[in-house]
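Tokens for chain A. Residues wanted.
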């Protein structure tokens, strides 16, 4: 009985329901968030009668990071959503596949440190520990027609994706159109980065993947987002909103307007435009008391990241080298755990003398090492690392020795 509706629902989003609903919510206060979540779910007929249904909450659990850093879906937001679904008679499965190995150790740590375990303990929601995945064809895929996706994605009657609003060094923005990359199991993600080193190609792949996952609703934790060097090392930014919609492309387009990012410069929104899914200046039907919300100052873009254009291939390496930030290893912080090496799409990292060493000639600037290093030991600028540390890394890369300059 479970899944029948989902199995027979065609891929793709209902283009008639590209409405976006935005409410103002200034802080992570359960009593403020809960009624707002009710208000959001009331906008969507699919969530009016969910008695006896199981709802997958696909959160952003990028890594084992405490909530204050604004990297992951906030536990108070998640708790309010779980309680609202339970009030409607539904049950909940919370899931994501963070970077790194997709196993019990990684997930347990991420659930605990991001405050998700506590939400499950307090509400009785189920946490996913199913690590199986399968290959799935996407007949209607515009760019890619076959994916390897986690089994948890198709294990419930309904799916709500619960992203945050963050800048992204590779895609420009991570919100509704990017969150389903967590449907790809752990280090399998590396293969997609390797196969699609171009930001536009990678973003088009994401659009197909999002489509394949048949998400019923995107409900954005837009209370505190992240700008600058997102999605893991940027600055937390107050946005003060909750955003929802059934169409990820219009949700993200409206989000760019709300936080002041230029969609013509973001690979993810450019890809949606190239696929004919949105016009960057289209009128969007926005409802709710936050429909006119525009934050000030605007979000700082993830500058120095990957390009939003596709130069001819003979120029690409040169342009990438001069225009993007190279990742560097903070020699003092690095403990040689190998997480960066295991997630490196360019096969550019080796561990020598218990320190990571990056070969920049192989690096495709996917910034997965920067996102996923559990010890904040990857830097993108000299300012970030400190000059001494930067010189230490240069020396280490040239001579294979460790100079601890911090
Ligand atoms: S840079 Fe970070 S992820 Fe890579 S080996 Fe060092 S500590 Fe581990
Ligand atoms: S070194 Fe870092 S940025 Fe470069 S390809 Fe590897 S993971 Fe990506």
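Reply:
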């Amino acid at each position: 009985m479970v899944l029948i509706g989902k199995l027979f629902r065609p891929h793709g989003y209902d283009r008639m329901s590209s409405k976006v609903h935005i409410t103002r919510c200034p802080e992570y206060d359960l009593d403020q968030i809960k009624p707002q979540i009710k208000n959001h779910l009331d906008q969507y007929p699919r969530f009016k009668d969910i008695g006896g249904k199981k709802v997958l909450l696909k959160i952003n659990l990028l890594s084992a990071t405490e909530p204050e850093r604004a990297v992951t879906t906030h536990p108070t937001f998640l708790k309010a959503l779980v309680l609202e679904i339970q009030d409607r008679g539904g049950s909940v499965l919370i899931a994501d596949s963070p970077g790194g190995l997709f196993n019990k150790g990684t997930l347990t740590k991420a659930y605990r440190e991001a405050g998700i375990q506590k939400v499950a303990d307090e509400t009785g929601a189920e946490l996913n520990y199913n690590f199986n995945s399968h290959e799935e064809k996407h007949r209607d895929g515009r760019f890619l027609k076959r994916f390897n996706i986690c089994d948890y994605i198709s294990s419930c009657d309904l799916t709500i994706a619960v992203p945050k609003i963050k800048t992204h060094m590779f895609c420009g923005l991570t919100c509704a159109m990017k969150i389903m990359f967590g449907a790809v199991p752990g280090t399998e993600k590396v293969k997609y980065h390797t196969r699609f080193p171009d930001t536009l190609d990678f973003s088009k792949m994401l659009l197909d993947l999002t489509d394949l996952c048949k998400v019923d609703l995107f409900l954005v934790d837009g209370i505190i987002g992240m700008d600058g060097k997102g999605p893991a090392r940027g600055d937390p930014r107050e946005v003060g909103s909750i955003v929802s919609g059934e169409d990820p492309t219009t949700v993200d387009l409206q989000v760019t307007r709300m936080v002041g990012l230029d969609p013509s410069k973001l690979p993810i929104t450019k890809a949606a435009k190239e696929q004919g899914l949105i016009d960057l200046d289209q009128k969007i039907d926005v409802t709710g008391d936050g429909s006119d919300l525009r934050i000030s100052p605007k979000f700082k873009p993830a500058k120095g990241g990957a390009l939003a254009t596709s130069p001819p291939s003979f120029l690409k390496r040169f342009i990438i080298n001069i225009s993007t930030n190279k990742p560097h290893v903070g020699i003092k912080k690095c403990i040689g755990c190998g997480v960066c090496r295991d997630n490196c799409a360019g096969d550019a990292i080796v561990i020598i003398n218990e320190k990571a060493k990056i070969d920049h000639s192989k690096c495709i600037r996917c910034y997965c090492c920067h996102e996923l290093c559990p010890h904040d030991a990857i830097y993108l600028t000299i300012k970030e690392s400190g000059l001494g540390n930067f010189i230490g890394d240069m020396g280490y890369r040239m001579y294979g020795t460790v100079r601890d300059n911090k």
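Residues 1-5, 401-406 have pLDDT under 50 and may be disordered. Residues 327, 344-346, 348-349, 358, 363-369 surround iron/sulfur cluster (ligand 2) (CB under 6 Å).
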